[in-house]
Specification:
2 helices, 15% helix, twelve-stranded antiparallel β-sheet, single chain, mainly beta
Length: 233
Amino acid sequence: MRVRAVARGVLAAAVAVLSLGSLVVSAQEPTSIALTPEPAKTIALHRCGGATLSTATTNCMGFTAGDILTDPSIFVVGFESNKDLAEKHVLQVAMQFDLTKITVGPNQAIDFAELMFSEVSTTKRSAAGESEYGILTSCNTKLGVPTSAWNGSTDRLIATQPAKTDGMTPATTAESGVWNVLPQVLDWVAAGQQKGVLVLGADDQSADIREMSACLSYLTDAVLTVQVSEKPQ
């Protein structure tokens, strides 16, 4: 009898191990979804001084970023204030993402969402007019969401409120920067939004001309990565 009891115990243990093994095998790995902006555009505000040249389009002598505004592969965020020319240029980067590509099952949840971008180069100028070049921290210090629907236009700055984030890692020249946007993505998905827009900006986004200060960063390769995982049992 004791031999049979021992055998039954061994069999029960084996069944338990097999059951545990089946649970491990059936568990699904997290799904990572990489969303590229559709579209991404540089938005510019130009406040220029009085007409001094015969060609109207050349009256702005400062940083107008004309070649960047129509380039879909590279963007500029920042500002230039030039009291000598009586000019101010402010640039945002608006990025729209297709949220319908994020699929969340009944037993799943979004547990990770980060916006990453690459910093190509940055230049800065102090209020005293002293310029800086080289390995610098990005001018992208603010992340916002539009206060009203963005129609894709670039003829005026986008009014924003702060995006819901959970920290960020600033970019430096030739290195990537990351915004943790999990709280914002969770809000969008909970509200059933099909599109989500994030706006990158610098410290100074006003039209006021302030001394000779400037901060301009060239950015590229933006991607919003979202991870969907099984809910804990």
